[in-house]
Predict the 3D structure of the following.
Amino acid sequence: MDYTIWTIAPIVLLPFFAFVINAFIVKKFTKLAVAISCAAILGSFGFATRIFSDFVFGKYAEDYHIHKVFNWFDLSYGSQIFKLDMGIYIDNMSAVMLFMVTGVASLIHIFSTYYMAEDKRFGRFFVYMSLFTSAMLGLVLSDNLLSVFIFWELMGFCSYSLIGFYYEKEGAGNASMKAFMTTRVGDVFFLLGILAIWSVVGNVTFVDIYRAISDGSFNSLYALGIPLATFAGFSIFMGTIGKSAQFPLQVWLPDAMFGPTPCSALIHAATMVAAGVYLSLRMYPLMEIGHLTTMIAYIGGITAFGAATIALVQTDIKAVLAYSTISQLGYMVLGVGVGSYNAAFMHLITHAVFKACLFLSAGSVIHSLHDHHTHEHVQEMPRMGGLRHKMPFTFWAMMFCTLAIAGVPFFSGFVSKDRILGDALLMALANKTYIVPMVLGFGGALLTAFYMFRMMFLTFFGEPRDKDLYDHTKKEKFSLNRNFPLLLLSVFTLGVFFSGSLTGQGFIKVASEKRYEWFKVLITKPKVEKFASYERQPWGHTDIKSNFQLSEAKYDYNYGLSAKEAHHIHHWHLIGALISIFIAFSGIFIAYMMYIKKAWNPGWWVSMFTRWYRALQNRYYFDDFYIGGLIKKGLLPFNNLLAFIDMGLYDRYAIDGWEKVNRAFYTVSGWFDNIFVDTIAVDGTGASVRLFNVVLRMIQSGKIQLYFMIIVFTLVGFIWTL
Amino acid sequence: MHGSSHLLNWILWMPFIGVLGNLLIPGSKKNAIRYWSLINTAITFILTLVLYKNFDTSVAGMQEAYNFSIPWIKQFNIFYTVGVDGISLPMIILTGLLFFLCILSSWTVEKSVKGYFSLFLFLQASVFGVFLSLDFFLFYVFWEVMLIPMFFLIGIWGGENKEYAAVKFFLYTFFGSILMLVGMVALYYAKGKGVDAFNILALSGGQFTDLKLSMFGSEFSFDKLFFVFMFIGFAIKVPVFPFHTWLPHAHVQAPTAVSVILAGVLLKMGTYGFLRIAYPIFPSASVYFADAIAWLGLVNVIYGAFCAMAQTDVKKLVAYSSVSHMGFVMLGLAAMTTQGMNGAVLQMFNHGTSTAMMFLLIGILYERSHHRYIVRPDGSKGFGGLYTQLPKFSIVFIIAMFASMGLPGLSGFISEALIFLGIYERYTTITVLALIGLLLGAAYLLWMFKRMFFGDVIEECKSYTDMNAREIAYMLPLCVAVIVFGIYPAPILNMMKASVGSLVKLLGTY
């Protein structure tokens, strides 16, 4: 069967409709709502599996893709053309992503039915989970940056809701707001990048961006004095920094642990944080022509190492995992920066699997540890210990994942991380500026092995430190919704599923045919040249897969390199692998000496480096700087000042001041009117008449004597004047 | 120019029928007055939907079938001319919808019910008059008449400082109107006092571009001078910085429904004035002043957002957020590109729905709390734990809040994205700065939400009851509108795109 819309769209639509339905029925029919959510994600897993198996096992050509477009809205009028198209774009990378996201999300859904069952907002949790998953799947299927942005923000909203899930807690409010606002900083840049690309390309479809890059449309264009490719690439990479919690916007992720643990697994392993790296991989050609790879490598290296150092001192089991997530994301970004495209993506996938499993295992541990005094679940490692006897399944699942993340050979983390580090080593040899990120990468690997095993030892080994808590903990019995997801995920921490050979270095091959190294063959940097003359396909067009099948003979086992180059690379990867193996085992050894043998005292390190210890505990003072400094000392006083100027000064004096001016005018004019016009002119006229009147009345008194006197005086006067 | 239909007359005069009906009902029969007003606005809203259904989206100009014109004051060539095109139609539908919902939300008004509802319907008629008039004089009359019901609605049914706010609102708007009046008379004489001297369509098209005007012994460019006059008149209504300070006072003092109408509809009259009068009549001056409009829009966006963040009164916060959001409309208008202008008109509609939701919700809350402090003057919490106490209310509030801050999937996003796409090509710097507004927009809303809704329920909030059926009934249509037009904006964009496109084309020739 070939692809039409109805075999692709359900991947997104099933969870979305589950969300819509559940939003209305969740109150009354909680169980049904949960069932609908789980069924929907399993259904979309089915559809995704089909695509995955077609792309990976169906011998699709390495550069094949499906692209279908429909019109969202059209503002064209006459000669002014403005259309906004949305579409579906699937290539090998999205096919792998789809399979991973749906698979991991399904398992998380199943686990949540165990973890959240006693929660009073059991159903509501699944409402958000469905929306979240569908947003992530929509992002993966997107064919353009704008729809990536839309789903990206929707995930931001879902993570806001999930982090603030326990809204009775004041802290949940702070954490959710912090997560949303911090990622929003990156998102705003991302939007700016979209605008910048739009101004060159005319839309933001991936294929058109690739075409524009291959045409050289970005050359000699500037925005605000910066080369446009750099400007746009940097802005988009800022989106990655925000969403994937890279330095310096990493602050939100540890706080995000306020949410229920399964949602941590979803947000911090399989979906949201991976979306950031996915975006920078998609936009890799732009980063390349924008000369941003060095910066990206530095960001990745700093994040990978810095977060690992903070993880050293955490005592909360989820906090350790949170910082390890940041650190591992740093490795992915480092991989992008050193041009290790394939390995960066592979690490995204392997990390999604083992980190989801780690979070779920942590959830399983936390859920079992119930403090009878405070009625809260315990997350603090100092109160654990010896738990491997109580919960063997969880222990083994977590152990496998820890081996994977620590970079022990045969496990997936080793395969992917080691290839990133190998490429970093190669880059450092070729270009000295890459030495720092390379060293940070290797250093971080040491720390990772150490803190992960520290966590394992503190949690599962040794004597129980809180005897009361330990005794009240029930022994784990195998239950399907609790242990099945954990164990299934832990199986996939084996490197062989990803590399085709046990180590990824080609030492021990389980399959003779190199095409079993499906990951290496299928995931390649986007070749922008092939989009030079590209034609879109509208909806309804059916993809005929036989047209695009590539005969096996055409596979290029050296990935476009000459035999000599390939040998050189292989050589240095080998050295890199040996170094990482050594580093991983040293980290484990140190942890073993400190926490099992107790031969080395961690307290000694604390007292030796007190200042560093405090800095680590305070997360290098980033929160103090952002919240205490920038926001509390900068933004809020500035707001208050502006608000005061607005109402207290501008409105009061410049606007209401006119009333005073007016009053002055009307006082003067009133006075003028009163005194001059009214009193003097008008009343004066009256008064003068009255005066005349009085005089006349006095004269016309009717007394004959007076008349006689007047006559006499007049005569006298008359004579006098003569 | 008579069309075949009297529909516009019906829409315009239906609220007056409502007023007359109210006057005939004895004041003691409060419910009769309420139901009569509700039925009246419902009919009006249905009429606007009929208009939408029969609207021909391919026509850029006025819809021939609905044009209606008869002489009013023959001696001065003043006509009663009404018509509808793609720019006014979204506003007419918005007006119909919001007044209908506001009647429902005003159900709890007890103080002289008869006067309140009569004035409210009177207000609706005058708003329709503004959006439907094609005769400048008629437009002006409705523009001014609108002040009368507003003045009394704020001055009588307002909060503790209502007289001050009412007078301020009145005088401020009146000041702008006078400038507009001068411009109108100048146009009348420039057009030679002929039969079409007040006809907005006849005045449009840029015929005054080269006209000069002698005044005070020097020569002025006619169109630039009177564009500025018109600009100030409309800018006060929008409100554009620095003419914005009446807005927080009016909003805070006005009763809920009046705030909704003020933010949802009346502010749009200002930007509608640009689209209907200032831009088409003075296109060259509009292009000339585009930079200034863009910068003022930017100031609106940023300044409004900063001021909003400092507010401790919820209603004032939302009032300032209106200042910020209307700044986006101004940016879209300044862009003068297809995307930008369409985005601006869409933003006018979307801001109408989302901000109406915010004000309605605050009204609902106020009916329970009788105060609006996020933080009281003494520093204690005004609200706390509302999420736990009022779950339904909280969900609606979240929808309104995220729509207001432009979350994708809700209506605000598409209009803001279009505006940004429109303005980026012309003003990159302004775009970069305006994006800060997006960031701040999320910040003040989320901060407010966090302070009011998260945490433990504080003592005085424990008596609050969740939304009742009537309240849900009038919030629901807005929720639906915000979500549906966020996912599928084409219905609104289709009706406006031809009209907006022809305006963009006109501006493009200068």
About this structure: Residues 504-515, 546-558 of chain A have pLDDT under 50 and may be disordered.
